Queue: 2 jobs
Job 1
Amino acid sequence: MVNLNSSSKVLTEDEIHSLLPNIELLPLIEKAFTLYSNSQVQLPPVTELNFENPSGDVHIKCASVKEMPYYVVKIASGFYENPGKGISSSQGLMLLFDSETGCTSAVLLDNGYLTDVRTGLAGAVCAKYLAPKNITQIGIVGAGIQAQMQLKYLKTVTACRKVSVWARSETGLKKFLDEIDHEYWDITSTNHLQELAENSNLIVTTTPSQEYLLRKEWIKPGTHITAVGSDTPHKIELDPALVAHSDLVVVDSIEQCKFRGELYQMYNHQLTPKKEVVELGKVIRDRSLGRKNDTEITIADLTGIATQDLMIAQGVYETYLK
Amino acid sequence: MVNLNSSSKVLTEDEIHSLLPNIELLPLIEKAFTLYSNSQVQLPPVTELNFENPSGDVHIKCASVKEMPYYVVKIASGFYENPGKGISSSQGLMLLFDSETGCTSAVLLDNGYLTDVRTGLAGAVCAKYLAPKNITQIGIVGAGIQAQMQLKYLKTVTACRKVSVWARSETGLKKFLDEIDHEYWDITSTNHLQELAENSNLIVTTTPSQEYLLRKEWIKPGTHITAVGSDTPHKIELDPALVAHSDLVVVDSIEQCKFRGELYQMYNHQLTPKKEVVELGKVIRDRSLGRKNDTEITIADLTGIATQDLMIAQGVYETYLK
């Protein structure tokens, strides 16, 4: 860490990595959702820049919460040819500003890592509140950095160690299997997504797919699916009919999911949900709004909200200041 | 400067100050406007956060230009009670990212200074292309940091040294007069805005006023007015009738000025301009689109566009790299 002037601190990715184990992350991300659904939040629409050749998308998110000391601006990008250059596809940084003066408090040069972490944590929050009591197998769709993150944080909310993983890319899958902790996880890979779907009752989808992967007829009663991959109007991972016919759809932000993600895709296919869509923050505050029994099919559609960025950035910065 | 990792450079405000004199700034800002009006630009709408108690507004702007090496994200805030705390009301920073990978290239911790500079330069560009040939007196409305910046860069485009300044705040005005270079400028202050308006043929308005200051009947033929203060839907400095009845209205961005600034205010008063509104970038490329003679009243409405941020941030960073 270097004090560049009296007011702005710059934290490197290494410093951020070393601070994270000292932070109780899951409650921070739960709070991010309850704060958001409390409406004490300013959370403007996501700003996007899109690139071709090489293809990439950049999302700029920001949020302020009444009476919080900082507001956050977060830039997160996905440049999907990066791995071929030996660079993570996710890049970006988080910024904290003083809510009373606008002064730059902290620059977290995380190179996209904190976005990956808070998205992984959001998956764990969904599993905690929406998965069936007895998770028999976790199905992970995709084998990128987010697939790793999901498993990392699912560890903290479920005892299930049985995992099936599917990915379109053989090399991606190999890398994932090379890096995963085989001592902890009882993991198998499959070429058959249907098989994964039929044998898992907690499924997490983590791909940037532009056509849907999971079909309605593959999903057995009692399954919970968290879809984290689709965060633009073009990406989709779930059969729109699956979303429409599930017993419960939970989203991070009803407003944001009107314009991106699985819920947007479902509406775009002229379908409507079986029951009123509920925000995750409301389920966290009142579990009775969540899963009713072990036969319901529940879906969580996460597009990522900036209060998650605010809470994790603030958590890192306050831990650094201690 | 500190190399925090292989890819991100962080420049402090002091370093930025020391680099600026080595940069040909005016052509950079001219290019910012011509690039923008060339439509090779992605420039999403401004994102805003608003704060009460203390009151402040935060603008997040971003831009990418085809085939440029970087894209920019800029956060600029105005917290109007800051000066009472000994802090500039303008705060913020600029970020450059690699257009091919999304990696963070540079963090310019300018605390809002580069935004002030590029806005000052935009005023000079407007004067260069739109002011009458013979400037007899410069009228400066407001006495904050932007009033100083406007004069600083007007020096580079006009030989006129006669200035009249008006400000609502006596203390602001005193501070401005204390800090201005009296050797260079023949400066007088006035309590009568009408007098300033009637005796100046280049007027620059730099306030965050929420009711208009300059009346139509005060402005004499041949005057050019650059309005830089209003950059939100609530701020206004010019009588909407003055905008509507002027011979030419030039804006930085037609799209953006539909939603903020003087042109927005004019439309909001159900008025229409005498002639088609022209973008500054088009006037720079084709002077015949600008002032026709020395009797026209011309107006430039600047709300600030992110290609200005891109060009100045890139100029600073590339000069640093040399």
Job 2
Amino acid sequence: MLAKLWVIKIGGNIIDHPEGLSRFLERFSYLKGNKILVHGGGKIATRIAADLGVEAKLVDGRRITDEAMLRIVTMVYAGLTNKQLVAKLQSHKCNAIGLSGADGNAIRAVKRPVKEIDYGLVGDILPNSVDAEAIATLLDHGFVPVFSAITHDGHGQLLNTNADTIAAALAVALSDRYTTSLVYCFEKPGVLRDINDEASVIPQIRAGEFEQLRSSGIIADGMVPKLHNAFEAIAKGVAEVCIGHADDVLLLREQQFGTRMIR
Amino acid sequence: MLAKLWVIKIGGNIIDHPEGLSRFLERFSYLKGNKILVHGGGKIATRIAADLGVEAKLVDGRRITDEAMLRIVTMVYAGLTNKQLVAKLQSHKCNAIGLSGADGNAIRAVKRPVKEIDYGLVGDILPNSVDAEAIATLLDHGFVPVFSAITHDGHGQLLNTNADTIAAALAVALSDRYTTSLVYCFEKPGVLRDINDEASVIPQIRAGEFEQLRSSGIIADGMVPKLHNAFEAIAKGVAEVCIGHADDVLLLREQQFGTRMIR
């Protein structure tokens, strides 16, 4: 039987609220077993960009990462946020080690090809571009990798990369070696049957039920791609994908956390 | 016989010059054996601080690290500079892993006690505060740790810490496990007998000769504390301390690099 691995992603909304973030980090520290934390950015990069006079560039509503913006997200995500998270986890005796995809060549990416839009220095993760062995070496020696959403192309270029995608790529790549749960923590208790009722969490969705929930309109908007990606990760070997509130992270232990997606 | 370890520190002057930095990183990649890179800051932190309206605070000519400045050095040293170095080293097939002292609890420090001056969030490294086992685990698995000059106190606080001191503390702590050379790379070819003659490098200084070179005024000014610290590291188990030009780093292989200090 394979050892258990949690790959847990926290969104920018968690990062932006110090009290909720502190609660989450303490609880995450208590979670037993192999674990990886992946963090998004939060609003601080936007604020620092504005203070430095670097304008957020948008094309058709999509954010573009030019060189100036890449420097800022590298500073903020891989520097300030990552090291603050690591220092706080260490204070809870969780042996965190903060990484970007460049570190240990853990996650390579390619600059997104220019089609209608040139997204700039944004990285797409290809299959087999995660070095599972390097990450397993760290896990097996008791380190808790904490990944920021920065990767590299292997030729010296850092790239801004979506944190959800990083978490999924890590979970998929490590599922040969561990029974892997991919967990998305956000500020809702899970996938809701009624978006206005936080008590209407759907506890479990099987792959076969997803299409029906979508066509009936129960799962809509931003949840559709999230769940699509979840079932894709499951098809590639991840044991389960869970989505729920960051405060509830310890409920993962008894399978009572938010919405659980399985094969 | 113990395996060889190089602990190589590059100063801010190297960081600030892209061409020299590229040359150094390529040559560093070619150096065989276990190795650790420690980097200082460079002028970019000062520039970004100015752009963000954060004033460098000086008391009696000494730089003070207040909270705003700590955020900036964490962003720049542990984020931007560290990840750029790592990505470039990876492009040369050197398996760099960028770390602060908080990562893997590698280097703990204590906030410098307030005497005449309150230096703010500056960390002093105590004996036994380097986790040699964690770092050896990384080295023994082929990683090349790249340390920025940020540590933590173990209670969640990051601290700004002198890069020379970090390099010395790492070399001392690892000298039980490796035959350790501590190397300071800067923009001069070594310790000069005549400060105006770059050809006057003193190839070797033994501990017993240091006092005489100092009292005769050949070693003066900023070189005195540097060499004092070098011989202190040697007294604590480091095999040799070398100081020379970053361009010459590969001359370490045949003991032709700058000035070599030995017991």
